[in-house]
Write a structure and sequence with these properties.
The two termini are 25 Å apart. The protein is 85% helix and 0% strand. By secondary structure, the chain is mostly helical. Helix 2 packs antiparallel against helix 9 and helix 8 packs across helix 9. It is built from 11 helices and no strands. The chain has one domain. The protein binds zinc ion (ZN) (2 copies).
Amino acid sequence: MGCGSSLLPLLRFMAHDLAFRTGLAAGLGLVAAAGNLIGGYFVVQRDWPRKYLQYFLALGAGYMLAVAFVDVIPESIHLAGEQALVFVLIGYFLVHLFEHTLAPHFHFGEETHHEEMSHHHARTTILLGLTIHTFFDGVAIAAGFLVSVWLGAMIFVAVFLHKLPEGFTVASVVLASGQGRRNAILAAGLLGAATLLGVLLTSVLQSQLKYALPLSGGVTVYVAATDLLPEVNREPNWRMAALVFVGVVTVLIMQHLFHV
Ligand SMILES: [Zn+2]
Ligand SMILES: [Zn+2]
């Protein structure tokens, strides 16, 4: 049909247009940021769908690790050679430093340890750690779209799958520290804003792509393997365990079918 045959070249042109891709990155960055806010909103509600959000976490862990190893890291080596792996390592330990070395107590998921959260230091360091991590969520999305629509879309899904858990984690930390709902939502909004900042800075500083992509790859590996997987393992729930593998297999199948 005439319509179909004229649509395809247009789509192909748009996929190669840089302005279109950075626009797409900004739009999806906004969606990801909204995910943080929605996650935070669930926590300040009395009844929130804990089970559903746990499933996001499990699916996200498998999907993120697969995207990092199959898409982000190989593409980084393609851009910057083997030195890209040093930046993957730096990205990994950057998050480790801020989330688990400087912060005395942090884990993904609902914060229920009120005693640990009573110290001002604990809450501030968690906020700092998560802000740095979410900044790189945004860097990852924009860097992905600078390479291709495919990579950007794969990374966006990886980021989005853990955005709700991220929002409810930070909001529950604030609530557990004795602060009100308003501050809990503000903290979730802060993570959303950091994500957007990551998208914008990466879109502006495009010449730094060969550092931005591997750094965000290392961050992705850390978040999936060190933040999310331990939470999956704490749940004696076979559905969650299975969803991790569903995440991995989804990426492999999509890679096989659509990425030529
Ligand atoms: Zn805790
Ligand atoms: Zn994140």
